[in-house]
Amino acid sequence: TQLLEQSPQFLSIQEGENLTVYCNSSSVFSSLQWYRQEPGEGPVLLVTVVTGGEVKKLKRLTFQFGDARKDSSLHITAAQPGDTGLYLCAAFGGGNNRKLIWGLGTSLAVNP
Amino acid sequence: GAGVSQSPSNKVTEKGKDVELRCDPISGHTALYWYRQRLGQGLEFLIYFQGNSAPDKSGLPSDRFSAERTGESVSTLTIQRTQQEDSAVYLCASSLGAAPTQYFGPGTRLTVL
Lengths: 112, 113
Known about the structure:
Chain A is mostly beta strands. Helices cover 0% and strands 57% of the residues of chain A. Chain A has one domain: Immunoglobulins (Immunoglobulin-like). In chain B, strands 2, 4, 5, 8, 9 and 10 form a six-stranded mixed β-sheet that branches. The chains are: A mainly beta, B mainly beta.
């Protein structure tokens, strides 16, 4: 069974702080995605990473895919209250498998 | 344009009753997915429709669950004889063909008393 483990499960920080959340697996994935989900809404795709070692930046968010394509990290610089939400990683197993495997998420609260 | 819509947004039902959840995907999206998200847990894949191909039903947890899709439009997820463990948010997503980007609806929160 392919599993994605996310850490930490919960994170509460003050506005302006930096943070990193992790998504780890013992399996190799063809690509990995990060989503953010707010209460009462569905997840919204932030980024897809496909190449080992790839780094993508989205404003204050930096996403990295591990060299072996088994893990990923999301770093937020100078967090804002608007960054509050549930951050989920998900991955396709590869080939024609269109089923996404999901982590349990990191619940982030950024306090003003 | 309009995103994925789901109805109802909330559904409270009694154990043993049947429920039907609806998903309207983004127009032109040939792929449609149903997921279940229990409190404190990640998303659990239920079923995947792609065009006229046979759906991938491998995630349906029991024969009480079924789903249909009319062409490339509306899909309904039916849960028969609901149980308390069926309580969850049911999310629908659509994508353009095999594209990796899935667009999610707001979900239906199902509570089985």
